[in-house]
Protein: Putative membrane protein
Organism: Roseibium alexandrii
Amino acid sequence: MLLQLLDYLGVAVFAVTGGIVASRKQLDFIAFLFFATLTGIGGGTLRDLLLGVPVFWVVNEAYLVVCLVVSVFLWFFAHWIERFNKPLRWADAVGVSAYSVMGAAKALNVGDTLLVAVLMGVSTATFGGVLRDTLAQEPSSIVKSEIYVSAAFAGAGSYVLLAQFGVVPWVAAILAGSVAMILRGGAILHGWSLPGYGHRRRP
C-alpha cells in the first residue's frame, strides 16, 4: 500500500512541477494539462517500457485523473503556490525521493537484478523532469552541479540494499526516500554538490 501511495505521490508532485512551469510560461489550460501529465507520467512510462511490463497509467487511469486534478488546481492557485520559497525545486525534490524508491521497488518486484533496479529508480525519478525542462526550454537540473541525480541514485540504492537485508518494504521505502530527500534538500538549501570533473591538462 505504501509503494502504491508513493507512486501516486510521485505522479502528483511531478505533475505539480509541470503545472508550475506552464504557469510561468503563461500557457493556456490545455498546455497546463499537457505539461502536468507529461511530467507526472514520464518517468514511470520509461520505467515500464524498459521493464517490459504494462504501462501503469494505461492499466490504471486513476493516474491520469490525478494529473487532471493537479492541472485544475494549479490553474487557479499556481500564483499562490509561487509565494512559497522555491516551490518548483521542492516539489521536484519530493518527486525524486518518491519515484527513486518506487522505480527500484517495481524492478525488484518483477524479478530484475539489483543494478537494473537502481537504474530504474534513477530513470523513473529524473526522466519526467528532463522532459519538462526540455519542452519548456529551461536548463535542466540534471546538468547542474548540485546534487540531483545523485540523490535519486542514493534513494534507489538505499532501497535495494535495505530490501536485500530483509527490511520490511514500507520501512525500507521510508528510509530510502528520506535519504534522497535529505540529499536533495541539502542541495537546494546549501548548494551541496559532488566534486566535478574539472579541467584536466593534457600531458
